[in-house]
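User: Please fill in residues for this 185-position structure.
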């Protein structure tokens, strides 16, 4: 089932999300719905707050960019209870980002190129690893959603000023996008 994406202004996007366990109701179905929603909106990552749930659950599909980055061929992965343990600040990189919850806005964000993360997979097996490159970028963007943070928070004061009008339009519902959304009432 394709779920509506909660857009900028929805309070759930500003909450710190909670860990879940195996008993979370209909978790498999929910994950399936998140993949369908992600595919429908042609995104590469989706965090549960973006579909209105304040739980630590993220799906990432890098397979759709594997024409450009072949190392991610087949990379479709679910992250349960992810946490960033450490940022390697040795190298940072500026890269343009967008977000399904902030349609129509694309801005460059500076982030570390390497992070240490822990998470559980769909079978609740524990994983701990260093991620780098594009994957580390996407993880930081998605895992930020679980802390109530969005990429627009990480822009310079100047860029924030520049996009203020667009953000106000988002709040008013004065925009178009190709997928189903849920606006703040
Ligand atoms: Ni996002």
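Assistant: Residues filled in for all 185 positions:
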């Amino acid at each position: 089932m394709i779920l509506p994406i909660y857009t900028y202004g929805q309070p759930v996007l500003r909450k710190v999300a909670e860990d879940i366990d195996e008993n979370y109701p209909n978790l498999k179905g929910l994950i399936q719905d998140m993949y369908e929603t992600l595919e429908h909106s042609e995104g590469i990552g989706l965090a549960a707050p973006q579909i209105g749930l304040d739980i630590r659950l993220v799906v990432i599909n890098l397979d759709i960019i594997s024409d450009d980055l072949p190392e991610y061929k087949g990379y479709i992965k679910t992250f349960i209870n992810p946490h960033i343990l450490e940022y390697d600040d040795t190298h940072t990189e500026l890269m343009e980002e967008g977000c399904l919850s902030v349609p129509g806005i694309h801005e460059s964000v500076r982030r570390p190129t390497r992070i240490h993360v822990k998470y559980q997979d769909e079978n609740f097996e524990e994983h701990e690893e260093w991620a780098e490159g594009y994957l580390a970028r996407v993880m930081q963007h998605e895992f930020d959603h679980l802390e109530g943070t969005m990429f627009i928070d990480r822009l310079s004061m100047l860029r924030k000023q520049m996009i203020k009008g667009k953000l106000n339009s988002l709040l008013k519902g004065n925009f178009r996008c190709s997928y189903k959304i849920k606006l703040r009432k």
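For context: The two ends are 23 Å apart (CA to CA).
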